[in-house]
Design brief:
The structure is a homodimer. By secondary structure, the first copy, chain A, is an all-alpha fold. Chain A has one domain: Orthogonal Bundle (Tetracycline Repressor, domain 2). Chain A has nine helices and two strands; from the N terminus they run αααααββαααα. Chain A has a two-stranded antiparallel ribbon with strand order 1-2. In chain A, helix 5 runs antiparallel to helix 9. The first copy, chain A, is elongated and about 55 Å long. Chain A binds a DNA duplex through helix 3.
DNA sequence: ATCATATGGAACTGATCAGTTCATAACCAT
DNA sequence: ATGGTTATGAACTGATCAGTTCCATATGAT
């Protein structure tokens, strides 16, 4: 998964995957139909492990969960930057439909969780609308993790967004 | 450029580029050092043409320009989805440093233009902070253009963001 | 200890990759 | 027309690609 994550589908060779897994081609092809299948299963695994982190289900629901989601959702190691799912979106043109379906379904789940957390706060805005915006913001943060802009930059942006969402006007 | 845009660097072959340009390999290599160089020049060309659209320099400066930037910046044809520059960010790990520098510089320019437009409005918030948020939002919109979520979805998100930015509370 | 069954590595397939070479063909000013 | 330049086409590198085959080596049960 980290190899696909960093290099993308096309730039990852079976040789790379052998090295990364320590499993020979024979073993890989015994377990997975082909390279596409292997990628899709990585995507599934990634989303399953992310879901287990439960960033958006901590009680009490509310802004705090959303801030944690934005701050700790995207990864920032040398091998894994941003979100594997968001990165995969850039490759949809060359990925099987299955990948598209998996990502779309996961995004729907996240949006539902976001809505719940927003509803927990008392808000005049439509929770659906806010959830959609937060998700766009999350996608943007993830893809921008590929820049060398440092972590401070990212947290500053998140905190400014949260100030607005929390209704505190006057960011400066 | 459209081929690189849609398929990414690694999944684009010289044969694809011959077909798309109508120029033979000999001609391509006479003009460009290698595939990386060709990609970088595509990126340069893309950003130059985008700059010429002047989405953020129409007078009078203000929210209207920013809304237009968010709505018309990302492309939405079969071959070209989102923004070539944002899509390229996902591939930084396998792209030459030059690509990174070009994108970083262009983003700095856009941020500067965003700040100018925000300053034109009277705002209690820090224009820099708002500009950064708008840019993250733009990146998110671009990468999400790879989803099949339709144009309505995108414009709705933009309009909700603009409502918040314009200070109209109560989106619903 | 023996045999059947998994699991492993290594060699091989044909296709495609980026990049080079070179001979031919088009072109253009004189 | 002619000579010099430039662009083009096609063949050719050596490497790498995804995927397959096959044999040797473990492994496990009896």
């Amino acid at each position: 998964m980290p190899v696909f994550w960093k290099h993308g589908f096309s730039d990852t060779s079976l040789q790379d995957l052998e090295r990364a897994t320590g499993v020979n081609k024979s073993g890989l092809y015994a377990e997975f139909r082909d390279k596409e299948d292997l990628f899709v299963e990585c995507l599934r695994y990634y989303l399953a492990t992310q879901e287990k982190r439960g960033l958006l289900t901590q009680e009490p629901l509310g802004w705090r969960n959303i801030e944690t989601f934005l701050k700790n959702g995207p990864h920032n190691t040398a091998q894994q930057r941003g979100c594997f799912s968001v990165s995969s979106m850039r490759e949809f043109a060359i990925l099987p439909d299955e990948a598209h379906a998996i990502v779309a379904q996961n995004r729907a789940t996240i949006k539902r969780l976001l809505v719940k957390n927003i509803q927990a706060e008392e808000l005049t805005m439509d929770p659906e609308a806010v959830a959609e915006m937060v998700l766009v913001f999350f996608s943007g943060l993830c893809i921008e993790h590929n820049l060398k802009s440092g972590k401070n930059s990212s947290t500053r942006k998140i905190e400014n967004l949260m100030k607005i969402l929390r209704g505190e006007r006057g960011v400066r």
